[in-house]
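seq:
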Amino acid sequence: MSAAARPLPEFSGDVELRPTFAPRPQITHVVFDFDGTLSWVRHGWPEIMFGVFRRHMPLLTGETAEARTAVLSGIVFGLNGRPTIVQMQRFSEIMRERGGGDLIAEDLRCEFQDQLDAEIALRLAAIRSRQAPQDAFVVHAARALLERLRAAGITPLVLSSTIEHRVKEEAEALGLTHYFGPHIYGSPADPTGFSKMAVFQRLLKEEGIQGEHLLSFGDGPVEISATKVLGGLAIAVCSDEEHNGSGVMDAFKRGQLLEAGADAAIPDFRDAIALVDYLLQK
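struct:
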C-alpha cells in the first residue's frame, strides 16, 4: 500500500515529519524507551547530573558558563540511552583533558544516583499512597497509545538502560506492567557491557521478526539510531523534563534525535494514536 493510499491525519499538537515517515502496515512490535519516554518518575535527572558535573568542573580562564554547559550537554544528552556509568566515564576523561585531575567514574555515579534515588523514592511514595495519580508520572497520553496498540494486536516492549529490576518496579507503580507482560527489558546489575543494539537484535531473533516490523519511541539517540540501523521506523519523543504535557518539544532532544535518524518528532503522545493508525493504514 502506498503512502498516498491514506492522507495524513490532522494533528492536535506539534508534530514534525521527515520524508522517511511513510505507512508501514507490516509493523508488529513497538519498542519504548522507559525514562523520559513513558515514565516521568525520573524527570529532572538532567539537572541533577548537570549539578554533579558543575560541582567538579570549575570554569576555565576565559570560559563562559554557556560554553561549559555546551560541553556538559554533549555528555548528559549525547550519551542519553547508555548506562549512567558511561556518562561518568566521559566526564572523567574531559576533566583529565582540562587538567582537572583524576575523578573516579563510579564515585560520580553514586553521587548522582543518590540524589536521583531520593527524588524517585518521594515520587513513588506519593503514587503508592495515592497522594499523586499514576498518570501524573506517565508521559502525557502514553497510556491511551498503549491501549490502542493492545486493541490492534501489536506487541509493545520496554527497552531501557536503567537497571532492570528498577524499571519493573517503576512500571508496576505506574500501572504499566500489564501492557508489556514479560517484555520489560533493562540493563543487568553490572551495566558496563550493556548494549541496546544487542538487545534489539536478540528481540528480533526471539520474536521471529525483521527490522521492517519494528517501530520505536524514544527520547535518546541510542534507541533511535539502533532502530534505524535495523531497518525499523523511529519516532523521537522530545519530552519536556520539567512540565509533563506542556506540548513543547525539548529543543536539544529534537535536534539530537532528528540527527540520530528519527523519522518523526513529537513532544509527547497526544498525537501518537493518529501517527500509529496512519503507519498501520487503519
